[in-house]
């Protein structure tokens, strides 16, 4: 059995739910065949989220870590390609912290690429009939903070560990009063299962164009 750690976030920004945690919980309750899934909910708080992630990795001792976060406004599943070493918060986190132009890890590299076959993961989600794309930016809020922290953890302490980050759209219940794209939580869970399966079974990524012009 491949051991997979899935993380989602608590609600933030005044929302009552966070679709990342809702979908992660569904996957943990019904994982893909041959995979043992442990789920952990992270605080939407700079610093604290990395401590929680490190503790979850220590406890689960996974082969693969897939962190998941909410990206309101995106229309489909986004598999992130790169994490950057900067915290630049447009809004405060859930503890009221709002770092501006601060490193995630002082002295760390400017960026890390995901240790996932990102294009194969996107293809697997599309094959399941769900919109997906490679994303070139995970933002500069707590999602990127966790993504970078995970990559730095693997680079410095657990070199055999593979992992990456997936952003998901709003849940329908979050957008009943505004015109924003959303995906049902069970659809997001199906997408995450596809990502996990592709990540577990694929070592060499697809060589197809998934770049961006802007």
Note down, in words, how this protein is organized.
Helices cover 31% and strands 21% of the residues. With 214 residues, it is α/β, with parallel strands linked by helices. 46% of the residues are buried.
| Gap from first CA to last CA | 40 Å
- How many strand segments? 8
Low-confidence stretches: none
Total count of helical runs of at least 4 residues: 5
Which series of helices and strands comes N to C?
EHEHEEEEHEHEH
Bulk shape: globular
Widest beta sheet: strand line-up: 2-1-3-8-4-7
- Rg, please? 16 Å
State the major sheet. Answer: 6 strands, mixed
Catalytic activity: Release of an N-terminal pyroglutamyl group from a polypeptide, the second amino acid generally not being Pro
Main location: cytoplasm
Subunit structure: Homotetramer.
Protein name: Pyrrolidone-carboxylate peptidase
Indicate the topology:
Elements lengths: L1 E8 L9 H11 L5 E8 L5 H13 L3 E7 L6 E4 L1 E3 L26 E3 L4 H10 L4 E4 L6 H15 L5 E7 L16 H17 L13
Parallel strand pairs: 1-2, 1-3, 3-8, 4-7
Antiparallel strand pairs: 4-8, 5-6
Helix pairs in contact: 1-5, 2-4, 3-5
Care to give the gist of this entry?
The protein is α/β, with parallel strands linked by helices.
Spell out the key features of this protein.
single chain, hydrolase, protease, pyroglutamyl-peptidase activity, 214 residues, globular, six-stranded mixed beta sheet, Peptidase_C15-like_sf, 5 helices, 31% helix, PGPEP1_Cys_AS, alpha/beta
């Amino acid at each position: 059995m491949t051991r997979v750690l899935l993380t989602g976030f608590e609600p933030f920004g005044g929302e009552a739910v966070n679709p990342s945690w809702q979908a992660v919980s569904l996957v943990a309750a019904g994982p893909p065949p041959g995979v043992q899934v442990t789920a952990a909910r992270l605080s939407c708080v700079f610093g604290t989220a990395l401590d929680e992630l490190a503790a979850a990795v220590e406890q689960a001792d996974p082969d693969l870590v897939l962190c998941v976060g909410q990206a309101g406004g995106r229309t489909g599943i986004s598999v992130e390609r790169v994490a950057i070493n900067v915290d630049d918060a447009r809004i405060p986190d859930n503890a009221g912290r709002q770092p501006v132009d601060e490193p995630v890890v002082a002295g760390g590299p400017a960026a890390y690429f995901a240790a996932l076959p990102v294009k194969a993961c996107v293809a697997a989600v599309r094959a399941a009939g769900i919109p997906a794309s490679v994303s070139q930016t995970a933002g500069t809020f707590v999602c990127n903070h966790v993504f970078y922290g995970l990559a730095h953890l693997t680079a410095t302490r657990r070199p055999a560990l593979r992992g990456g980050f997936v952003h998901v759209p709003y849940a329908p219940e979050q957008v009943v009063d505004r015109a924003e794209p959303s995906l049902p939580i069970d659809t997001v869970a199906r997408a995450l299962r596809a990502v996990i399966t592709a990540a577990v079974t694929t070592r060499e990524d697809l060589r197809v164009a998934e770049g961006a012009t802007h």
